[in-house]
């Protein structure tokens, strides 16, 4: 589960990670009040206004309606409200949101931490994630902060430093010193970075996160190390241990069809193609997507209805797939192992009748226990549903209905 920057920073702060201070606001008036509060607390007279969406690239991204960037600097208190107004309620498009963008409901008004001083501030990159290949958490750090890390990885991979952490011994002091050294730090900034990394790692482990990305981490002109940005991904499977974190969920940021699928305990991922599919079992779902491609279609989704497919889950799956306007056909591919094919077939017919008015052709391929009876139920239903027993036949039918 992703959370907003302002929520992530609040968590980091609790663990002793120094962050760019900020106050969240829903309206331009609140933004001004937030700036006043920051001025009182930190003395800052310049403010950064940051759109809160679950996507990165906000600094370079643009608000459709006003042309404002998603992260802007306000150099006076009076400047805060109009700049916040140009972001709030607008649709922000960044390289991570896709062309449709994301609506901005909140802004974070933050203290400007790039103030000029004895030396120029410097941006670094730090992330922590689970390296599944080694079964270790890995800290990645780079001097190329503020940049897209994918680009750094492609063009100058030697500039990304990695340190793997043994889960049994945890993060050791020599490792954080190694990272701070690799980043070329010295003096107070070196000590600050070591402290920063330990606090950050504690937060990561304690919250059962699967990814932290702090880009940029800033070395201020007075040698403090702080998190300017914070992308936190919490492990969904561990959320039951953190009811306080589970509450941070913002479903307005999630794909509505995926939210609906979750409520029905369906494992659904929306894709861009034209053939919807409903399958029991993730492996079979992957194979089905291959078959759709082979037949000249493109899968519109991944949908695993799980082991206990019944009329209710089939109907919920249908409704979700049909809400996607790109869907030109639906392929249902069910292997009757625990679930019997005749039950699934009855479920399909019942769901079809309940929803009514389905315009796209549906191909049902049932294999396994009672497959023939399932096919007979489909064929005799009188509905615009085609049955197939072999995967090859199902692919052929997909080809025919798309033609
Ligand atoms: P992202 O674009 O979504 O990754 O959002 P960030 O939080 O990383 O902010 C984008 C950029 O805004 C940063 O890389 C900085 O260059 C700039 N920025 C953030 N905070 C400040 C600040 O306090 N002062 C100034 N001048 N720029 C800032
Ligand atoms: Mn960033």
From TrEMBL:
SUPFAM superfamilies: Glutathione synthetase ATP-binding domain-like, Succinyl-CoA synthetase domains. ATP binds at residues 50, 57-59, 113, 123. Mg(2+) binds at residues 215, 229. Keywords: ATP-binding, Ligase, Magnesium, Metal-binding, Nucleotide-binding, Tricarboxylic acid cycle. Substrate binds at residues 280, 337-339. GO terms for molecular function: ATP binding; magnesium ion binding; succinate-CoA ligase (ADP-forming) activity; succinate-CoA ligase (GDP-forming) activity. It comes from the Bacteria. Residues 2-217 form the ATP-grasp fold succinyl-CoA synthetase-type domain. It catalyses: succinate + ATP + CoA = succinyl-CoA + ADP + phosphate; GTP + succinate + CoA = succinyl-CoA + GDP + phosphate. Its cofactor is Mg(2+). Its EC number is 6.2.1.5. InterPro entries: ATP-grasp_succ-CoA_synth-type, ATP_grasp_subdomain_1, Succ-CoA_synthase_bsu_CS, SUCC_ACL_C, Succ_CoA_ligase-like_bsu, Succinyl-CoA_synth-like. Residues 278-398 form the ATP-citrate synthase/succinyl-CoA ligase C-terminal domain. Binds 1 Mg(2+) ion per subunit. GO terms for biological process: succinyl-CoA metabolic process; tricarboxylic acid cycle. It is an enzyme of class 6 (ligase). Belongs to the succinate/malate CoA ligase beta subunit family. Succinyl-CoA synthetase functions in the citric acid cycle (TCA), coupling the hydrolysis of succinyl-CoA to the synthesis of either ATP or GTP and thus represents the only step of substrate-level phosphorylation in the TCA. The beta subunit provides nucleotide specificity of the enzyme and binds the substrate succinate, while the binding sites for coenzyme A and phosphate are found in the alpha subunit. PANTHER family: SUCCINATE--COA LIGASE [GDP-FORMING] SUBUNIT BETA, MITOCHONDRIAL, SUCCINYL-COA SYNTHETASE BETA CHAIN. Heterotetramer of two alpha and two beta subunits. This is Succinate--CoA ligase [ADP-forming] subunit beta.
């Amino acid at each position: 589960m992703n959370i907003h920057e302002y929520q992530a920073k609040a968590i980091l702060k609790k663990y002793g990670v120094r962050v760019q201070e900020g106050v969240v606001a829903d309206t331009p008036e609140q933004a001004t009040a937030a700036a006043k509060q920051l001025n009182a607390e930190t003395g800052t007279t310049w403010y950064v206004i940051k759109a809160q969406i679950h996507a990165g690239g906000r600094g370079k991204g643009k608000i459709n309606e006003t042309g404002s960037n998603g992260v802007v600097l306000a150099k006076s208190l009076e400047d805060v409200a109009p700049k916040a107004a140009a972001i709030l309620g607008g649709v922000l498009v960044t390289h991570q949101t896709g062309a449709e963008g994301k609506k901005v409901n909140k802004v974070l008004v933050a203290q400007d931490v790039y103030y000029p001083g004895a030396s120029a501030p410097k941006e670094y990159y730090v992330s922590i994630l689970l390296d599944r290949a080694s079964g270790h958490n890995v800290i990645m750090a780079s001097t190329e902060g503020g940049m897209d890390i994918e680009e750094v990885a492609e063009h100058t991979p030697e500039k990304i430093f990695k340190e793997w952490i043994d889960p049994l011994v945890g993060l050791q002091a020599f490792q954080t010193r190694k990272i701070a050294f690799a980043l070329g730090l010295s003096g107070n900034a070196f000590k600050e970075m070591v402290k920063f990394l330990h606090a950050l790692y504690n937060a990561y482990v304690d919250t059962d996160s699967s990814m932290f990305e702090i880009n940029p981490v800033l070395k201020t002109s007075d040698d403090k190390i702080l998190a300017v940005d914070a992308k936190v991904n919490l492990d969904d499977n561990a959320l039951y241990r953190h009811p306080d974190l589970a509450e941070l969920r913002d479903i307005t940021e999630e794909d509505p069809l995926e939210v609906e699928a979750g409520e029905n305990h369906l494992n659904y991922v929306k894709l861009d193609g034209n053939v919807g599919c409903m399958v029991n079992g993730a492996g079979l779902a992957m194979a089905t997507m291959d078959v759709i491609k082979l037949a000249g279609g493109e899968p519109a989704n991944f949908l695993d209805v799980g082991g206990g497919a019944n009329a209710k889950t089939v109907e919920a799956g249908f409704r979700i797939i049909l809400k996607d306007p790109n869907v030109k056909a639906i392929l249902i591919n069910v292997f009757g192992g625990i679930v019997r094919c005749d039950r699934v077939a009855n479920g399909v017919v019942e769901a079809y009748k309940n929803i009514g008015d389905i315009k796209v052709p549906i191909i049902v391929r049932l294999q396994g226990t009672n497959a023939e009876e399932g096919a007979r139920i489909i064929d005799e239903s009188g509905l615009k549903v085609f049955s197939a027993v072999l995967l090859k036949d199902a692919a052929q039918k997909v080809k025919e209905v798309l033609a």
